[in-house]
Amino acid sequence: MIDAINPTVKTIGILAASILLGLTFRWEINLIVALLCAFFLLTSSRTDPATLLKALLPIALISLSYFFTGWLFSSEQAQFAASNSAAVSGGGRDVVNGLTLGTRILSFAMLGISYSLTTDARELVASFIQQAKMPMKMGYAVLSAINLTSLIQREHENSKLALQVRNIPVKPFDTKPLFTMLIRMIRWSERLSLAMESKGFSEDRVMQRQMTVKAKDILFAVGLPAMIVALGFVFV
């Protein structure tokens, strides 16, 4: 479902939804947004269960911490805000304040997780170049940085092994392998730049990935923020 949404339009929709969500202070809205993002993640073919679990565990812990903090150490201002929304007792106001703080953290985190785990990096850059008019050179630089992430770690390990083979001690935070790695990465970047120029990579080159904006993309970008605004009027 969410995998087929244009990445640029998805970025706009998620960003607008995050801004509007920050203007609300109702735990019901936060919970609905978090459940909707969970639905996006469960229906996405790009979601890795192991990665999702690693991301949710600290978020759940932080949300619970905020819940108990808001419940046990509720301020008078928070109780007054809760009393304006519903006729609840003093203890109920503390629970509502805790729910509001806990679900607020959860909803923002779920928006970010649902965006990052369901968006392909190459499609995102291609969409930024075609729809958001990102300069081609900047787009290729971002793609190179994404692809270099795993290479940097491997080069750092190789640099440490090279020093150890020469019987040079390497401490946990030693700068020697880091310096060697940087030199290798700079040389690799120069070779990559020359290879791209020789292959004709330029502003006039036709891209293989053609990203388009369809009606469902516009519906997502408009519908998600509109839903938050509508819920804001429902839970007044």
List the helices and strands and how they pair.
Layout: H1 7-22, H2 27-42, H3 49-72, H4 76-85, H5 90-117, H6 121-130, H7 136-165, H8 176-198, H9 215-234
Helix pairs in contact: 1-5, 1-9, 2-5, 3-5, 4-5, 6-7, 7-8
Roughly how much helix do the residues carry, as a percent range? over 70%
Oligomer: single chain
Q: Beta fraction of the residues?
A: under 5%
Work out the radius of gyration: 24 Å
Class from secondary-structure proportions: mainly alpha
Mean pLDDT: 83
Main sheet specs: none
Kindly, what is the distance between the CA atoms of the first and last residues, rounded to a whole number of angstroms? 31 Å
Q: Total number of helical segments?
A: 9
Order of helices and strands: HHHHHHHHH
List keywords for this structure.
236 residues; flat
Could you describe the 3D structure shown?
The protein has 236 residues and is an all-alpha fold. The chain has helices at 7-22, 27-42, 49-72, 76-85, 90-117, 121-130, 136-165, 176-198, 215-234. Helix 1 (7-22) packs antiparallel against helix 5 and helix 7 crosses helix 8 (176-198). 25% of the residues are buried.
Summed up:
The chain has 236 residues and is mainly alpha-helical. The protein contains nine helices and no strands.
